[in-house]
Specification:
The structure holds 2 protein chains of 2 kinds. By secondary structure, chain A is an all-alpha fold. In chain A, 48% of the residues lie in helices and 0% in strands. Chain A has 2 domains: 30 residues; 185 residues, Cytochrome Bc1 Complex, Chain D, domain 2 (Orthogonal Bundle), CATH 1.10.760.10. In chain A, helix 4 packs parallel to helix 8. The N and C termini of chain A lie far apart (69 Å). Chain B is mainly alpha-helical. Chain B folds into 2 domains: 188 residues, Cytochrome c oxidase-like, subunit I domain (Cytochrome C Oxidase, Chain A, Up-down Bundle); 223 residues, Cytochrome c oxidase-like, subunit I domain (Cytochrome C Oxidase, Chain A, Up-down Bundle), CATH 1.20.210.10. In chain B, helix 1 runs parallel beside helix 3, helix 5 runs parallel beside helix 7 and helix 7 runs antiparallel to helix 9. The chains are: A mainly alpha, B mainly alpha. At the A-B interface, helix 1, helix 2, helix 3 and helix 6 of A face helix 2, helix 4, helix 5, strand 1 and strand 2 of B.
């Protein structure tokens, strides 16, 4: 009978059948404003934060940490204000995650000083004896590669010039390597002597973590 | 090539590739299961949990799953069309290229080239490779179907066609990205849209790799192994179209209570509930096929695998929609409950049906009897026991963690800090590891049994 003896017709019909749900729930929303709101308070990542984000991806941090706080009472109590779509306008890809082996990180920015993160990344078990997080001290032994930073920023369309990118990198380097850095002591402890005057992968990772949720705090503080 | 002209070398090649990647994927799985309660195994960056977890999921999903699908579908395709593969050399090239690609994929993930889109973590050059592999496969599927000698296409062929078409659409759309270098790219979608595209993909890649082709195996090998015709052809028609129609609407149940627009989430819930019907259509069809012949559960070692496998499929397709309900999802999401759910489907349904399909197929393409039915039975009980302990442990752990996250003191403050909820799971993680070892031993017996089968000299007539 009919289509069950016509493989090509059958394939075309299958394609039509699977495309209906796809078009309604996936393709149409791509062009709806509700899935891509923007807010003047949410700023793109700086070059250093973006490099940190790429390291977060490289190390698969998203396998254990989510980045979306749900509008549930205990969740807001634990992490802070629930996540809004405009916060993710510059996230390509999104990093919402699917399993909380560790806590959500969408509001971690500004929660702890940089020194806390240096110490924690170096040895999670040194801080929390029973933690199962892998240690990431070795990130401090890797010089940060900023060779593609401008290219990355251009692909993502963040609108910074090559000069802006250079400036962002040298500013952040000046901050963390300068004598006035509030987390200098801890950074020096975890960073090998020859890299103390350079930007390391650990520095970028922490810059990224400190960015998470920061813009929302500005939004809430706004009149 | 056999005397009938059927191309069986490629079937055998893919079957043993599947076994190889299964053992690799499970070894990595055991490693990360151990890391969950003892982080000392994060010895080097390459062996840290974040990188290894994607080697585990890709190794088993792409390596074991796809190789198992290719092995069985190249076999089913030829048998059901009564036609040799249209392009046997292309199929052999497909086999070699596939294993090269999976090896490179594992290597690239170990090195941290990870796009982070779940089950689509490979960077863009490997994505191109996957698309080429898929085209090579599709040419043989449609080439053979067009030349077929058997006019009517049996149920299994519908599922193979639907998979071939749908995987192509899913994979290409979700992996669209702009390259920065050879090893790095950025998704073309941002934020909520990227999430929506990803989970449309993520949910359906599971559907069209771990459900649709496994149903193709089930509908072919169950009647073959039992000598009984499928109970209802009409039911299989309804189930098929309803399944492939409804599946694509449901991805957003993975994004419940996130910043994705609420209507997309709600539509996904509705279609998830609807999906119970076509899923159970196949379950009922399987059970009723054995009507009056249930003694085969005892007398025919293959039937156990198929019937217990379809039972886990039935449980999986009930549990899934329930987890998708907003209230239950608020409790279970992000806990180990979901990890248990996934593993019931993969360890219980997919592995059971692929095991039995290989046990049926390998002796027939080599002309040897199965090395040992006794060992096949041991394999069955070990993977059944291992899987049950594994998944039930994770469900209990998930309920516990979900409850701890929600628990509040009388004054409204949180009762537990996050770390409490992690460390309280370590006893479950230890038990899960032990159950994984039991399962792994079962799989080693499976591999040994098939290796001994093909190494036997054919019996003289």
């Amino acid at each position: 009978m009919g289509i069950y003896s016509k493989p090509v017709v059958f394939a075309v019909l299958s394609a039509v059948v699977i495309l209906i749900g796809t078009i309604v729930t996936v393709f149409v929303p791509l062009f709806m404003p509700s899935t891509q709101p923007v807010s003047p308070y949410v700023k793109p990542y700086t070059a250093v934060e973006l490099e940190g984000r790429d390291l977060y991806m490289r190390e698969g941090c998203n396998n254990c940490h989510t980045q979306t706080v749900r509008p549930l009472r205990t969740e807001v109590l634990r992490y802070g204000e629930y996540s809004k779509p405009e916060e993710f306008a510059y996230d390509r890809p999104f990093l919402w995650g699917s399993r909380r082996t560790g806590p959500d990180l969408n509001r971690v920015g500004g929660k702890y000083p940089d020194s806390w993160h240096y110490r924690h990344m170096q040895s999670p078990q040194g801080m929390f004896e029973k933690s199962n997080m892998p240690p990431y001290g070795w990130l401090a032994s890797n010089r940060l590669d900023t060779g593609n930073s401008f290219k990355k920023i251009s692909v993502l369309g963040y609108g910074y010039s090559a000069e802006d990118v250079r400036q962002q990198i040298s500013d952040y380097k000046a901050k963390v390597t300068g004598p006035g850095y509030d987390s200098k002591e801890t950074r020096d402890q975890v960073t090998p002597a020859n890299l103390r005057g350079e930007l390391t992968e650990m520095d970028a990772m922490i810059a990224y973590l400190q960015k998470l949720g920061r813009d929302v705090k500005n939004l809430e503080a706004a009149p | 090539m056999s005397e009938t002209g059927y191309e069986y070398r490629v079937v055998r090649g893919f079957a043993f590739s599947a076994l190889f990647w299964l053992i690799i994927g499970l070894t990595v799985g055991l490693w990360i299961a151990f890391e969950m309660f003892n982080p000392a195994l994060n010895l080097t960056p390459w062996l840290s949990f974040g990188r290894l977890r994607v080697v585990h999921t890709n190794g088993l999903g792409l390596g074991f799953g796809l190789a198992g699908i290719f092995a069985t579908s190249y076999y089913i395709l030829q048998r059901l069309t009564r036609t040799p593969l249209a392009f046997p050399k292309l199929a052999l090239a497909h086999l070699y290229l596939f294993n090269t690609a999976i090896a490179l994929a594992a290597l690239s993930l170990f090195m941290g080239m990870n796009t982070t889109k779940e089950y689509a973590e490979l960077e863009w050059p490997l994505d191109v490779g996957v698309v080429i592999l898929w085209v090579m496969y599709a040419i043989n599927v449609f080439g053979t179907l067009i030349r077929r000698r058997e006019k009517q296409m049996y149920i299994s062929l519908w599922y193979i066609i639907a998979m071939t078409v749908t995987i192509a659409v899913l994979y290409i759309v979700n992996n669209l990205a702009i390259p920065v270098t050879l090893f790095k790219s950025y998704s073309i979608y941002a934020g909520a849209n990227d999430a929506n595209v990803e989970w449309w993909y993520g949910h359906n890649i599971v559907g069209f790799i771990f459900t649709v082709p496994v149903l193709a195996m089930f509908y072919y090998f169950l009647p073959k192994a039992t000598g009984l015709p499928i109970y209802s052809h009409r039911l299989s028609i309804i189930s098929f179209w309803a399944l492939i129609f409804a599946y694509l609407w449901t991805g957003a149940h993975h994004l419940m209570l996130t910043p994705l627009p609420e209507w997309i989430q709600t539509v996904a819930i509705a279609f998830s509930i609807f999906l119970i019907a076509p899923s159970w259509g196949s379950v009922v069809n399987g059970y009723y096929t054995l009507q009056g012949n249930w003694d085969q559960m005892r007398s025919n070692y293959l039937v156990k695998f198929f019937i217990i496998g379809i039972t886990f499929y039935g449980l999986q397709t009930l549990q899934g929609p329930l987890q998708g309900l907003r209230t239950l999802n608020a409790f279970f999401h992000y806990t180990d409950w979901v990890v248990g759910h996934v593993h019931m489907g993969t360890m219980g349904w997919v592995a059971m049906v692929i095991s039995a399909s290989f046990y049926y197929m390998i002796p027939r393409i080599t002309g040897n009897d199965l090395h040992s039915i006794k060992l096949a039975n041991v394999h069955f009980w070990l993977i059944l026991g291992g899987q049950l302990i594994w998944t039930i442990t994770m469900w209990i752990g998930g309920i516990q963690q979900g409850a701890m996250w929600k628990a509040t003191n009388p004054d409204g403050s949180l009762m537990y800090n996050f770390l409490d909820s992690v460390t309280s799971l370590y006893p479950y993680y230890r038990l899960r590891f032990a159950a994984g070892v039991v399962y792994f031993i079962g799989i080693l017996i499976f591999a040994w049994n098939l290796i001994m089968t093909v190494r036997k000299k054919p019996v003289e007539a």
